[in-house]
Amino acid sequence: MKRHIPNAITCANLFSGCIGIVFAFKGDLQTAAYFVVLSGIFDFFDGMVARLLNVKSAIGKDLDSLADMVSFGFLPGVIMFNLLKLSYYPSDYLPYVGFLITVFSALRLAKFNNDERQTEDFIGLNTPMNTLFICSLPFIAVDYPQVVYSSILLIAITLITSLLLVSEIRIFSLKFSDFSWAKNKIKFIFLILSAMLIAVLKFAAIPFVLVIYIASSVLHFRSIPPSNN
Q: Is the pTM of this model over 0.85?
């Protein structure tokens, strides 16, 4: 039975993503964002449980990517599609630009599955973090609609995040091989700053967290010797 537990958690990720998509198509983008968070929690724990139970499998890896494609690929594309529909100066075709996020998320996940350099960390922005950023926009729009519903800004966000997904920027994973301060101080500082920002700003903190995540990853990999890969 234990070999099925991680896959069951992965399926919960997929199920949550499907529900989020339904709410996103209905235009309830904030509720959709909460299901993204739930998917992210399941996505974090399926890998952890698989390692604890020592039940890694090729099927589990593929299932994880398929679930991520729905929760962190299609769902953020639907959210951006809806944001562009609500944007200032929309056209009939402009909202479909949002699905570039879905396309590049698929490319990113396929690259991840076949890139031997990404066994411990990431090359390019990971899809869950990108999705959290996209999902923060409807919350920010409550206080700053003139900013978020700018068609130019939304298209720029779509293009920039799509490129980040398939970029060669090294991004650290939040999986810890040990919890020593010397090896993980930048990760710990990132987590502390992120927690403080989220406690104060809630979802509006996510854009700042994304910037700090990328910047701290650059610092982290500059502080350690390069790998042979």
A: yes
